[in-house]
Specification:
Blueprint (H helix, E strand, L loop, with lengths): L2 H16 L7 H8 L3 H8 L10 H15 L2
Helix pairs in contact: 1-4, 2-3
Amino acid sequence: MKLTEKVEAVINAAQAAKNGESEHTSYRIFKECGLTQGAIKRYVDGVSDISRMGLGVAEKLGEYYDNHLAK
C-alpha cells in the first residue's frame, strides 16, 4: 500500500471518529504520533489538502496506519 493511501485511511478514520464511527480520534492520533494537534486537525477538517502534507507528518501517519489500522 502506498504512503498516500495510508495517510488517507488515517485521516478518514479521524473524520469518522468525529461522527462517533471510529475510535481513532484526532487527539489519539496526534498523541501517539508525536505531532501537534493542529497538524492533524487541518487535514481532518478539510482545511488543508493531504497532497501538500509534509513528508515527516505523512511518515508518522503511515506508521500509525501500520500499527493500528492495517489488517
